[in-house]
Specification:
It is a single chain. Helices cover 60% and strands 0% of the residues. The protein has 65 residues and is mainly alpha-helical. The chain starts with a helix and ends in a 14-residue tail after the last helix. The mean pLDDT is 92.
Length: 65
Amino acid sequence: MKAVVAVEHAMLVAAWNMLTHGDFYRDPGADYFTRRTPTKTRARAVGQLEALGYRVILEPLADTA
């Protein structure tokens, strides 16, 4: 039941914003939260791998340009 109410709320907020600002809905994309909080996403991924029994060492990729 809580999920239904949450979806209804999200739909009402989106509709209200579209009607008050005159904008069309813009989908933030599948990677919205990854782009918004990359540090938190990275920490979550490392934590999940460590919970599976892996040791994780992160190294930045070398520039390809």
